[in-house]
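Methods, example record. To illustrate the input and output format used throughout this study, we show the complete record for Secretion system C-terminal sorting domain-containing protein. The sequence lines were provided to the predictor; the line carrying structure tokens was produced by it.
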Amino acid sequence: MKRSIFLTICSLFISLFSFGQTSTEQFETESHGSPSFTDNGVIFNVISHVGTFDIQANYPGTGWNGTSIDNRYIDNSNDPASPPSFSIKTTSNLFKVNRFWMYLSALNLDLTVQGTLTVTGKLSGVTKFTQTKTTGFATSMNPTNGYTLIDLTNLNGQNYSNIIIDELRITLGGNYRYAGLDAFSWVKDTNIVLATNETVSSQKGSMSIYPNPTSGPLSIKAENNTQAEIYSQDGKLLKNFEMKKGTNQADISELPNGVYILKTSSGSSKVIKK
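The corresponding predicted structure is encoded as:
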């Protein structure tokens, strides 16, 4: 029998599954000038703090995907604002960072200037780790096309790759004015995160679902017209449908046996049931 157990979850972060999915974004399929990118089904926003950072145009041979030269990456072009700073942030899934590659230089792309790189991980605005790298930067084009590997498994002798965050912030210091980030390797974490302006409703009667468990057919009683989404335990959207105020009929008999997440929205509030 198919089983979908529904229960209200009242925390901001909703646990979905117990393993991570490693992925590396090389930006080759992203759009020039875009302030966001999508990898492994997760949307990341590129947030500019000082200077303007976005996806660079297709300049052949100027990036570094970790094994060979490529064409696209995140950078601040020739923006003179200092000290350059940007974040990679998502509001759909939490994540962990393994490593990424960075070209760090003066605005004229001179790699021999001296500078620093501060890497900060945040979760819901709270700093979970921060480290400033001061040495070990590439000073010539060979052998990595001018890019430096930033490895969070050993950053200043510490392992930060297992820390769950929703924002990775990069800040340059010293004489570094240009930053290019490529081959962003990360792990999809076990949680879905709601945006900071969203809340989870736990009021009784806000939504009821029966039978529980079910072999497929569902009756869902909603207090308002809303959009419903069903997610798998690994955070993938499997099904969505409109619901009217009152009792709605749905069927998930096409899904395999398991536990699923049902998410509905009403204004700025969210109801999430398992």
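Annotations derived from this record:
The radius of gyration is 22 Å.
The first strand starts at residue 13 and ends at 15.
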